Amino acid sequence: MKTALVLGAGGFIGSHLVKRLKKEGYWVRGVDLKHTEFGETEADEFIIGDLRNHDLVEEVFFSPNQSITFADRFGIKPNSEGFDEVYQLAADMGGAGFVFSGANDAEIMHNSGIINLNVAECAVKYHAQKLFYSSSACMYPEYNQMDPDNPKCSEDSAYPAAPDSEYGWEKLFSERLFMAFARNHKLNVKIARFHNIFGIEGTWRGGREKAPAAMCRKVLETPKGGTMEMWGDGKQTRSFLYIDECIEGIRRLMASKDFSGPVNIGSDEMVTINELVEMVMDIAKKKIKVKHIPGPLGVRGRNSDNTLIKKKLKWAPSQPLRKGMEKTYAWIKTQYELSR
């Protein structure tokens, strides 16, 4: 039986990944600061812990394959093989209101940076066979994303570096961190740059939710004929990827024998935020007004360039945005009604 360690297993993407790995027959250890928000984890073992704590990271990297006593774990390199696969998804993150306000920059860079430094070191020390790192499209240069109709987000456009947020700078640093460990310590690393992942069982309120969930919630909260607020003019563009396709992309990248990335995992179906809201209103069969107000926005345009993933993995996400939004709206509607 193959073993997998999922860091950030209590989060949105991590909890879905755990389910997929279990379906494929893996033994899975999940680690997070908290349990999954919606439902029970399917991990064989779930450890509540802070990955900024180096000793905790040492403990969780110790694989069931490595049969030596607890007292011998620290300061040694076990001879037996570690986890077959490690997925590093843990990060301090959220939607635009959290990432682009500027109020959380120090915590974002400090927390995620320390986590990744701990993970890179212990992956080598405890002989992880393969490690996946979840980067973000936020690491792409702001100067290539000023035109909402023609953003450039191909993997080779990352440099000269100029992310629009400290979150993006941290992601870029961590990509280079893991690639340096790959060169210097023979760590088998796979890196993907996520483009706005959404879907069921994701955060939908509280300030850290992404745009699709936020728009679903706002449409639900606003009575017919009423007015909802939206940050910016709504003409900024994005693409959004449904969670199932994200997990498929992760698994295909991890299965690749000769390609490590970084590679985009995202949809190339670009929409304006105004169009996204209109889609939600149509799904909800509910017409409301939109009031545009100042707020944190990020870049003017962003869309996944899937040229490289098609070439290297012979695959790219294909599910229409509408299909994923229908599932997400129905799920959030249920959660909203239960919370009232």
Describe what this molecule looks like in 3D:
- The protein has about 350 residues and is of the alpha/beta class.
- Helix content is about 35%, strand content about 15%.
- It has 10 helices and 13 strands.
- The longest helix is centred in the middle third of the chain and has 21 residues, at about 105-125.
- It is globular.
Defining key terms:
single chain, 37% helix, 340 residues, two-stranded parallel ribbon, UDP-galactose 4-epimerase, domain 1, alpha/beta, 2 domains, seven-stranded parallel sheet, 10 helices, Rossmann fold
Head-to-tail CA distance between termini: 44 Å
- The H-and-E topology, N to C, reads as EHEEHEHHEHEEHEEEHEEHEHH
Helix content: 25-40%
> CATH superfamily assignment of the largest domain?
NAD(P)-binding Rossmann-like Domain
Describe the global form. Answer: globular
| Second rung of CATH, namely the architecture of the largest domain | 3-Layer(aba) Sandwich
CATH class wording of the largest domain: Alpha Beta
- The count of domains is 2
Q: Which value, in Å, is the CA radius of gyration?
A: 20 Å
How much of the residues is beta strand, in percent? 15-25%
Largest sheet: 7 strands, parallel
The counted number of beta strands is 13
**Strand order in space, largest sheet:** 3-2-1-4-5-6-11
Q: Which runs of at least 5 residues are low in confidence (pLDDT < 50)? A: none
**Rounded average pLDDT:** 93
Secondary-structure-based class equals alpha/beta
Number of helices: 10
CATH topology of the largest domain: Rossmann fold
